[in-house]
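Posted in: Protein Modeling Q&A

I'm a second-year student putting together a small comparison for a lab meeting, and my supervisor asked me to include a predicted structure for 50S ribosomal protein L3 N(5)-glutamine methyltransferase. I've never done this before, so apologies if this is the wrong subforum. The sequence is pasted below exactly as I got it from our records. If anyone can share the structure token output, I'd also love a short note on what stands out.
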Amino acid sequence: MASGSPSPADELLTVRDLIRYAVSRFGAARLSYGHGTATALDEAAFLVLESLSLPIDDLGPWLDARLTLAERLKLVDLFETRITTRKPAPYLVGKAYIQGIGFRVDERVIIPRSYLGELIVTGTLGPEGLGLIADPYQVETVLDLCTGSGCLAILAAMTFPAAAVDAVDLSADALEVAKLNVADHQAGDHVKLHQGDLFGPLAGRRYDLIITNPPYVAAAEVAAFPPEYASEPVLAHIGGADGLDIVRRILAEAGTYLTAGGGLLCEIGTGRDILEAEFPYLPFLWIDTAESEGEVFWLSAESLARRG
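Accepted answer (user: helix_wrangler)
Welcome! Here is the predicted structure, written out as tokens:
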């Protein structure tokens, strides 16, 4: 935009105006979503609320709020950056949320959006839910494999207050971001970060609970990613020809690292049919969430010990 030329911000006075403008611009640009939002409206609302340091859970109270010129210019510029770079909104504002809890993100980590966050935070696994964990206070050790930003490890530390949580990732860059999140949430006494390949740094340790959201996207799908998904580290997505190479490795080793009464909670995307056909002797318990069906499984230590 040439210096001195009119800006859309000159006429967009309220939050409602900015939201409407962004939705129109995003729709015309045919953006892709899925990094915490599913529609142009949700994306616009997130960018506006987060950029203005407003609570992101309710747009309603702010719709008719008038913004300063500086705020309007900032938002219009942010919308244009979203369109021209095609970077996911959380990268542009440096923040993503799971179950309303915020975590720092940048291009060094995949943007957290795991279904496991819901299962951990809402107590679905506990005595009032599925009963897979009889008493959260009796969980003493938790492992988060492929931790990325560290969000699931931190949520586990919040949910299981007596637990020591180990969090492992192959990427040193991702662990630098996880370190910031651990500090932000004052979780350093409970969460320890380890660099390595899956169970590699953990010889001899056993856990009451292993949680993992590993890379599980097939190579051909990664190659066809829209720009938003291609902005994320490919290491955090690619899982081999059918997406399940890393999941197979976890299944082969997890039993060795579980306590007798422990269990494995794993997100795998859409590979359920493949796993059930390949491992007919494993009694997968498939757990649905608010936004997924048949993409998360639970296996007990006992069932993994019996694998054929």
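A couple of things worth pointing out for your meeting: The chain has two domains: 8-93, 106-305. The radius of gyration is 21 Å.
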